[in-house]
């Protein structure tokens, strides 16, 4: 897989668009879905009139070189918001009202510090911008009374700085895309093991800033668990964190930076744990009679082991859709039940041992092995979902995802509550829908739930989804679950985060922000108000 250039509203490699089967198109037509108006071409999108004082642009040009500061129309449109479905819908309609006034591309940590100095002095808001795949409004800060908005694109910070073979760590600059990081590490015989579905576009910096979780989290952990150290540029100067793998020297401030979503500083490099590139990778499918039965088996593996590298359970609806979808490529299989995908990576001996142990647990708890075909099909099709979102949108469907996490004891209640809430909110609007769910990240004490919602597009898809999402958020809150397991907070979840944390904890975050960013220029409105 190679790096692809980011299109403002289409996913991934434009030469491999999603393929919607005729049966799906027919089903949508039967539901009365009609294709929306064609997207407004990027050059015709409407931008806010730039407010950036000339003194700022010229100071940035002097600091970085003119070629690394752009106020071009298309570049600004290309740095507008992220990749949530509402973000894409707005941009397709030509609404680039959240565009930055300028886009800067610093080439070093010192240049990032310099940009922050200039913007602090002139009260210009700065949006750290890496892969641009935020789905929670993390790239749409509030302009408020700022003198302008600058997107700080980290794409020139794309180097593998060093590898420590003895400690098995690597230092990566944060604009490095996931694909590039894996390639550079593979050349040295290693893997990072972080594969979110946004792998083709997202970066090391985005992973750290948004506490990303990849599809191999059971084996390699979440991204925040991989980070050993960070270098952060703040408007007050540089913070360097991480002097030993563990430390009792006070609270772990790395955890304040991880998940800070650009509100506390720009992370310019991270030290991450790395692993020997696996000798062997095997993926398998298992069927369970019900989601509840499958969840019991996943819990057993998470609590008592052995844990595969990849472990996921689709509910009945998602299993049925995936098995009939050639682009998701799960291939043919008997209908009914719930599919578990297991993946094993490591040395030949590790794979054999873990596979044998995990298979025994799955079988004992009612799983029926489907062989390697469904697992391999999942592996090869696992990055295709976002492509299908574009094709479905063009056919008149609206697709969006949401996620949360809770303790095992609360999982069934949460799944039912969120499903019911989303369905009711869409049914009330007269939009027939499918709500699918899977577990893809497991812990000893609980798991995440990831929902994919497909519905007929109405005239105002942004308002349509906002009602469904508000209902889901309320259900998550009522169930005592978290507003996000891995997508983060951005502007979309800011109020929900405040409810989840409570006022004193939010004040702690505010105090941190005001100490590192006294002028409040970093991503205003993201994470905290
Ligand atoms: C189709 C799709 C699939 C996805 N799948 C997954 C998934 O499987 N798992 C998962 O965890 N997430 C997933 N996401 C969400 C998203 O990809 C992750 O949050 C990812 O970590 C963001 O990385 P990015 O480089 O695109 O960051 P961006 O979107 O550019 O930025 C994310 C946030 O971090 C801030 N930021 C960016 N870089 C820095 C930096 N260097 N320093 C400080 N702040 C910074 C930004 O201002 C923003 O608030 C998915 C998104 C999409 C669109």
Question: Can you put this structure into words, describing what you see?
Answer:
It is globular and about 70 Å long. The strands form 4 sheets. The chain has a 7-stranded antiparallel β-sheet, sandwiched between helices. It is an alpha+beta fold. Strand 8 and strand 9 (237-241) form a beta hairpin. Helix 16 runs antiparallel to helix 17. Among the domains are: 32-153, Uridine Diphospho-n-acetylenolpyruvylglucosamine Reductase, domain 2 (2-Layer Sandwich); 160-276, Uridine Diphospho-n-acetylenolpyruvylglucosamine Reductase, domain 3 (2-Layer Sandwich); 280-381, Alpha-Beta Plaits. 36% of the residues lie in helices and 20% in strands. The chain has 19 helices and 18 strands. The record marks 312 as: Important for enzyme activity. Substrate binds at residue 389.
Low-confidence stretches: 326-333
Tally of extended strands?
18
Unique ligands: flavin-adenine dinucleotide
Q: What is the mean pLDDT?
A: 95
Task: Give a short synopsis of this structure.
The protein has 529 residues and is an alpha+beta fold. The chain contains 19 helices and 18 strands. Helix 2 packs antiparallel against helix 5 and helix 16 (411-428) packs antiparallel against helix 17 (461-478).
List the helices and strands and how they pair.
Elements: H1 22-30, H2 54-64, E1 69-70, H3 73-78, H4 85-92, E2 102-104, H5 109-122, E3 125-129, E4 149-153, E5 160-164, E6 169-173, H6 178-186, E7 190-191, H7 204-210, H8 217-220, H9 223-226, E8 227-234, E9 237-241, H10 254-257, E10 266-273, E11 275-276, E12 280-288, H11 291-304, E13 310-314, H12 316-323, E14 338-346, H13 348-364, E15 368-371, H14 372-381, H15 385-394, E16 397-407, H16 411-428, E17 433-439, E18 446-456, H17 461-478, H18 494-501, H19 503-516
Parallel strand pairs: 2-4, 3-4
Antiparallel strand pairs: 1-2, 5-6, 6-10, 7-11, 8-9, 8-10, 12-14, 12-15, 13-14, 13-17, 16-18, 17-18
Helix pairs in contact: 2-5, 16-17
The structure holds flavin-adenine dinucleotide.
Flavin-adenine dinucleotide binds next to strand 3, helix 7 and strand 10.
Active site: 450
Binding site for substrate: 389
Keywords: FAD, Flavoprotein, Oxidoreductase
């Amino acid at each position: 897989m190679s790096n692809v250039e980011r299109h403002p509203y289409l996913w991934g490699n434009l030469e491999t668009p999603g393929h919607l089967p005729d049966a799906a198109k027919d089903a949508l037509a039967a539901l009365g879905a009609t294709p929306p108006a064609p997207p407004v071409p990027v050059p015709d999108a409407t931008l806010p009139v730039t407010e950036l004082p000339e003194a700022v642009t010229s100071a940035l040009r002097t600091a970085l070189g003119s070629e690394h500061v752009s106020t071009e129309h298309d570049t600004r449109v290309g740095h507008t918001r992220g990749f949530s479905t509402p973000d894409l819908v707005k941009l397709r309609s030509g609404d680039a009202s959240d565009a930055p006034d300028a886009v800067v591309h610093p080439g070093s940590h010192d240049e990032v510090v310099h940009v922050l100095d200039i913007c602090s002095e002139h009260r210009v808001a700065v949006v750290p911008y890496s892969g641009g795949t935020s789905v929670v409004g993390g790239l749409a800060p509030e302009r408020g009374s700022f003198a302008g908005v600058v997107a700080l694109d980290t794409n020139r910070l794309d180097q593998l700085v060093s590898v420590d073979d003895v400690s098995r760590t690597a230092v990566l600059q944060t604009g490095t895309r996931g694909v590039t990081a894996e390639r550079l590490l593979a050349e040295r015989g290693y893997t990072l093991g972080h594969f979110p579905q946004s792998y083709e576009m997202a970066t090391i910096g985005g992973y750290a800033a948004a506490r990303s979780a990849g599809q191999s989290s059971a084996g390699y952990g979440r991204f925040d668990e991989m980070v050993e150290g960070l270098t952060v540029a703040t408007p007050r100067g540089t913070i360097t964190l991480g002097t030993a793998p563990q430390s009792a020297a006070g609270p772990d401030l790395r955890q304040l930076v991880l998940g800070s979503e650009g509100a506390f500083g720009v992370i310019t490099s991270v030290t991450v744990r790395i692993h020997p590139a696996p000798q062997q990778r095997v993926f398998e499918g298992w069927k369970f009679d019900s989601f509840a039965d499958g969840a019991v088996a996943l819990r057993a593996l998470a609590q008592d082991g052995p844990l595969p590298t990849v472990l996921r359970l689709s509910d009945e609806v998602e299993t049925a859709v995936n098995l009939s979808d050639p682009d998701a490529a799960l291939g043919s299989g008997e209908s009914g039940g719930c599919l578990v995908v297991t993946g094993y990576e490591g040395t030949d001996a590790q794979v054999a041992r873990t596979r044998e142990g995990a298979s025994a647990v799955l079988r004992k708890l009612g799983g029926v092995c489907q062989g390697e075909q469904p697992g391999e099909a999942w592996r090869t099709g696992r990055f295709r979902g976002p492509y299908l979102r574009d094709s479905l949108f063009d056919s008149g469907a609206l697709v969006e995802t949401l996620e949360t996490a809770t303790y095992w004891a609360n999982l069934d209640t949460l799944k039912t509550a969120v499903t019911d809430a989303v369905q009711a909110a869409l049914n009330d609007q007269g939009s027939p829908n499918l709500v699918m769910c899977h577990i893809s990240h497991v812990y000893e004490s609980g798991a995440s739930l990831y929902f994919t919602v497909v519905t007929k597009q109405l005239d105002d898809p942004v308002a349509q989804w906002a009602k469904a999402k508000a209902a889901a958020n309320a259900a998550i809150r009522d169930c005592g679950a978290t507003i996000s397991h891995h997508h983060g907070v951005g502007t979309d979840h800011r109020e929900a985060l405040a409810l989840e944390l409570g006022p004193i904890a939010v004040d702690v975050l505010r105090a941190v922000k005001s100490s590192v960013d006294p002028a409040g220029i970093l991503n205003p409105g993201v994470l905290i108000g």
